[in-house]
Amino acid sequence: MTPSFRHKFHNAIQSVLLLAGMAALGWVILSTVAGPQLTWAVILGTVGGLMVSPGIPRGMLLRAYGARRLTEHDFPEGVHLLEILARKAGLPRVPDLYYVPSQLPNAFAVGSPANSAVCLSDGLLRVMTRRELAGVLAHEVAHIANRDLWLMGLADVLSRVVSLAAWVGQLILVLNLPLILVGAAYVPWHVPVLLVLSPTVMAVLQLALSRTREFDADRGGAELTGDPEALASALLKLERRTGRAWEDIFLPGRRIPQPSLLRTHPPTEERVERLRELEGEGRGVPADGPVRYAAPARIAAPRFGPWGVYR
């Protein structure tokens, strides 16, 4: 199940084109609002900050989610499985395993390949079997190995900078509206259009990049475990579990597919279909059964936490 050269090339070109589109739009908006010199300073400072301090977002996110470190004493099978997957993926360091005390089934990775962490929520650990957990962990390890975390971090920063510049530009236009109306100042017609539409275009490009990386992480995770069906089963289970009873009552149409351009993740059905097209050998997959871990006495209900994270 090793990805072909064509697959790697197509995936790389798609990611590069999306990032290039975001960078080009960012340059246009920033240079329009702040001028070329200040734009260069902002871009170089942003990229430099991401290069020299990739570990800062990790600590912030872990604190925001109230995550605590899981040792081999707390969760031996999870830690051991993560070590095997990290070794297969060729990571320079085994990611730390963290526990998020939330009922919301969720898993995510933070950091860089040299200093990463994989977080699992209580809700996810309660519903996953060992085989499904292996698929989920492999998916997150694939994200780390592919350097998706840094890539998506760069895309997020670009999107935020452009949004901020667009809002500043719109404020400047509003403040100068009297001068524009009396003819004392001239603004080309395309400038207001760019300022209004650029945040939306950046968001769409960012979502498209996210979907591309998710497909590749699915394939990478299946390759690590040799068991694509494990991740497919986990995805289907998460799809069923994330629905809420109140949505059935007040939002009966919630399952109507949203526009594909506005999805952060590809549709679960499409991800499962792609996974089932792969032929797994099942090597290294743990015996199926319930996941055993030491759960704390009190688990938080899903809610918005610090910095707007939903946990």
From TrEMBL:
The chain crosses the membrane at residues 12-34, 40-61, 161-183, 189-209. Its cofactor is Zn(2+). Keywords: Cell membrane, Hydrolase, Membrane, Metal-binding, Metalloprotease, Protease, Stress response, Transmembrane, Transmembrane helix, Zinc. It holds the Pfam family Peptidase_M48. One of its GO terms (biological process) is proteolysis. One of its GO terms (cellular component) is plasma membrane. It is a multi-pass membrane protein. Residues 82-278 form the Peptidase M48 domain. It is found in: Cell membrane. InterPro entries: HtpX_protease (IPR050083), Peptidase_M48 (IPR001915). Belongs to the peptidase M48 family. This is Heat shock protein HtpX.
